[in-house]
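If you are new to this repository, start here. Below is one unmodified record pulled from the training split, so you can see the exact layout before writing a loader.
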Amino acid sequence: MKDENRELIKDSVKDIIISVIVVAIIFLSLYGYTQNWPPIVIVESGSMQHGSLSHIGTIDTGDVILVKKIYSEDSVISYVEGRLNGYKKYGDYGDVIIYEYNGKLIIHRAIVYLMRDGDHWKIRGFENGKYPSWLIVTSSKIEIKDAEYAHKSIIINLTLLDPRRVGDEGFITMGDHNLAKYGSYAYDQNSERFIAICPKLVNYSMIKGVARGEIPWFGALKLYLTHTNLEEIPANTKRNLGISLLVIFVGSFLADYTISKRDKIRERMRKFLNH
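And here is the target side for that same chain:
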C-alpha cells in the first residue's frame, strides 16, 4: 500500500510539473511573438463588438487578445490610412490599439492621427491636403463618411481639441460598437457629446501595443470569476465556451485513460489483429 501511495504521489507531482512546463512554454511563446508582458488582454466590454453575438475575427466581450508591442506610433495604421489602401483588422479599416489612461486599459480602433501645425490640425497621411471624397476636412471638423461596420459618419469636432489639454499630437480612438450604438460623436476624446473615455489624444507613450490574434470565448472565464459585465457576454460566447470546456475535459479524460491503459490496449489490439 505504501508503494502504491508513493507511486501515486510521484505521478501527481510529475503531472503538475508537466502542466507548469506546458503553461510556461505557451506564455514564453506568446511573449516571443508579442514582445510584451503580459502578452494578452481580456476584453471586458462590448465596445468593439459587431452586433449582439460574438464572431471569429472581431473583438467581443470575453475574447482573449494578443498585444503586440510597437516601437513608434508610425507602426499603427489609422482607420483613414487603412481605408485609403484597403488595410483591415478585426472587421474594419485600420489597427486596433490597446492603450492605458488613468490606470485603465482600453482596446479601441485608431481612427485618425492628428498633428498640431501652428493654429490648426493636420492629419497624418494627408499632409498634402488632398482628401478622398469620403473624408471631409475643415478648420472646425473632420467628417469620415459611411464608416464601414456601422455605416455612419464619424464627426470629430476640432474646436474642442485644445492642444494645452489634449496634447500636440496623437490618435483619435473609437469603439466600433460605440459608433453603431451612440452615433457619429462617440469617439473617446469627445467631452461634449459623449463620455470622454480618454480626454487626451492617444500618443505613443500611452500605447501598450496593437491587437494581433484572438482566442475567442475563454476570457469569459475571468469575467465569471470576477462577476464583471456578465450581462455583456454574448449568448453564443457562453454556449461555445461551455462546449469547448466539455471537449477539453472529455479529451483530457480519454487521453489519461488511454495512457494509463496503454499496455492493455496494445494487447487487445495485437490479439484483434492476429485473429
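Two things worth knowing about this chain: Residues 1-34 form one domain. The helical segments are 2-34, 79-85, 163-166, 176-182, 220-226, 235-260, 262-274.
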